[in-house]
Amino acid sequence: MPTRHPPIPRLWLMTDPRLGDSLWTALERLPRGSGVIFRHYQLPIAKRRALFAHIAKIARRRGLVLLRAGAEPMRGERGTHGRRGRGLTTWPVHSRREAIAAIRVGADALLVSPVFPTRSHPGAPVLGPVRFGLLVRGLEVPIIALGGMDARKARRLKALGIHGWAAIDAWTR
């Protein structure tokens, strides 16, 4: 693995505005070395930066890897999600075609979703374990399962070679 970025975490929190104050609980529940992907796209840039700075402080204290989604660079980021940048690069993937394109642009890890039904996208079609397995088969990058995930569901996917899993709600229960 290149030394230009931290190790790729196995457990991830996707920030989401609907977390509200439970965001702080979720950040405290993540084990050391876990990853956080900061999204909060809807916030005006000044509020977005302030929230990111607060999360970055917690991430440093707790040994979390903080990535930024969105175009605007943030102080304290350890990488990016969905675009090339400095540090670790993760990429959202919903199909085999997107996976191959992400690998070609240099993604270090793929977040493949939605594996299971999720509150983030109610009623959206899901991959399920079989289609998920077919999508990720033979890909030469770490795969992070996303969409309705928790530790129990991650164990179900372990045989498919996942590197880890990401969630929103699993960290607030």
What's the arrangement of strands in the largest beta sheet?
Answer: 1-2-3-4-5-6-7-8
**Computed Rg:** 15 Å
The count of helical stretches stands at 5
Overall body shape:
globular
Estimate what percentage of residues fall within beta strands: 15-25%
Largest sheet: 8 strands, parallel, barrel
Q: Summarize the amount of helix as a percent range.
A: 25-40%
Identify the quaternary structure here: single chain
Mean of residue pLDDT? Answer: 93
Spell out the helices and strands N to C. EHEHEEEHEHEHE
Question: Your description of this structure?
Answer:
This protein is of the alpha/beta class and 173 residues long. Helices cover 29% and strands 20% of the residues. The chain is built from five helices and eight strands; from the N terminus they run βαβαβββαβαβαβ. It has helices at residues 22-29, 45-62, 96-104, 128-136, 151-157, and strands at residues 11-14, 35-38, 65-69, 79-81, 88-93, 109-112, 143-146, 164-167. An eight-stranded parallel beta barrel has the order 1-2-3-4-5-6-7-8. Strand 5, helix 3 and strand 6 (109-112) form a beta-alpha-beta unit. The longest helix is centred in the N-terminal third of the chain and has 18 residues, at 45-62. It is globular, with a radius of gyration of 15 Å. 38% of the residues are buried.
